[in-house]
Amino acid sequence: xxxxxxxxxxxxxxxxxxxxxxxxxxxxxxxxxxxxxxxxxxxxxxxxxxxxxxxx
Length: 56
Prior knowledge:
66% of the residues lie in helices and 0% in strands. It has two helices and no strands. The longest helix has 29 residues, at 3-31.
């Protein structure tokens, strides 16, 4: 097999591997369930209120 064909085959194999890996990752993340936001208490209410009042 000459070099251009070899490069095309390797590039195609890498592309397929990345595509399948991405699909598996998305399925795994979707399988974990609904995304829940962080609790408000962990956001630092003091910082949020100072920005809301025009402070700093």
